[in-house]
Amino acid sequence: MLELVIVDDHPAVRSGLIGLLEEGEGLRVVASAATAREGFEAIADLRPDIALLDLHLPDDDGLSLCLRTRALPMPPRVVIYSAFANDGLAVRAAIAGASAVLAKSAPPHVLTAVLRGEVRPTVDPRALRALGARLEAPELAVLGMLVHGVAEEEVATTLGLTREQALARRAQILARLDGRRPLAAA
């Protein structure tokens, strides 16, 4: 049984997901939260197998929450679940450490297959090139490894960085792509 934490600021979405996922085989919702802060606390305390994160939260964004979640000692797989899912978001989510991005309009069977790890959506090469064109060479190395499924620890080792330094570099890459100031990685 895979345990799941849902983080979405809309009560109706949380309730609907809980109802949908509780009916599915092999998934159990152990907590839901409306904010990134509440979600991070639940994830850190409960150590679920999977975190299902909305992109737009009232106190932070799902990508920042994903990056902080992936910094935990035993991080869950993360799926970004958004009405704004697109190819560019999939690239940015890979940098944050998400295993998948899924549109909220996806059919329920696709959602459960992605949560179970049976299906992993791919990153569109055009979106990868478009976002990659905005990065420096060292950032491109990080992007390439993460998008192609290289483990986060191996990325850090390959670049001669500590885990914390690698997370900080990923936070800087996300900030550059989002056109904002660098985020705190953890």
Automatic annotation (TrEMBL):
**Pfam families of this UniProt entry?**
Response_reg (PF00072)
Q: Which residues carry this modification: 4-aspartylphosphate?
A: D54
Q: Which UniProt keywords apply?
A: Phosphoprotein
Q: Does the keyword Transferase apply?
A: no
State the InterPro entries in the record.
Answer: CheY-like_superfamily, EvgA-like, NreC/VraR/RcsB-like_REC, Sig_transdc_resp-reg_receiver
Give all residue intervals belonging to the Response regulatory domain: 3-119
So which domain of life are we looking at? Bacteria
Q: What is this protein called?
A: Response regulator
Species of provenance: Solirubrobacter deserti
